[in-house]
Amino acid sequence: MNKPLVGALAAVFLAAAAAPAGALTATEKPAEPTRQIRTAPAETSGTAGKAARAADFAGTVALSNCSGSVVRMPDSQDQDPALVLSNGHCLESGMPGAGDVVVDKPSSRTFDLLNAEGDEVASLKATKVAYATMTDTDISLYELDTTYADIESEHGIKALEMSADHPEQGKAIDVVSGYWKRVYSCEIDGFVHEMREADWTWKDSVRYTPACDTIGGTSGSPVVDSASGKVVAVNNTGNESGGECTMNNPCEVDENGKVTVREGISYAQQTYTLTKCIGTGNKVDLGLPGCELPKPE
Q1: In terms of CB atoms within 10 Å, which of 4, 27, 152, 160 comes out highest?
Q2: Which residues contact 123 (CB under 8 A, 6 or more apart)?
């Protein structure tokens, strides 16, 4: 994962020098600097005819460098503070190190809320990072200064529902990017025992079929089960150039330690585990029965 570039002029020159072939230039909308720099054709087999679907973007958000979504847990209440789901590596403070866990860290980050057609209808503001890590998974969860009820009454937007169940192989999914206002459709190809990229290791990751060849800026996109409409994962990485377990080139490691590299294939992190760690009032409680998310040391 490429580190964020700081400073406008520095970003222009460093990006020009370091960006891979086909990366976006400074005159185009900048791709998310921390993940998924590789490009793809404007219309791929997984995206053709999908981005214009009327209801696909309602509840998704665009971050400054990533995608995300307003989500509610199975037991969330209308008057609870709303939550935004994205990736741990999308944090405004930078990527957490291996083993790092962020809990209840103050934040004033803003998110562009989209309606069904992909139009921005509001700017939402966080009060804190409720939870974030890149250990075992790649998740960030922000708490907002507004409730689900307020968002729906003021903007007509409902939050996406989080599934409490493990996703299933072969299921049709949509990866919905609020950053690019673009949808990728494919199937869950399978699950990865361990996925390694540079210093990070993720467990039980979702592997897509090739049609979901996601690009820069799609990190943090909700992965939605096409049948139920519920969020089952969060998009986070892909093997860019065939490297083995290196930055931008995650590898798969099975139970016996065998390493497999799948160039051009993208992945997501399951989110059902997150639902088991949210208690009353939408508060993160890592001590809840069944909660297996990494805890701060």
Answers
A1: 160
A2: 110, 111, 112, 113
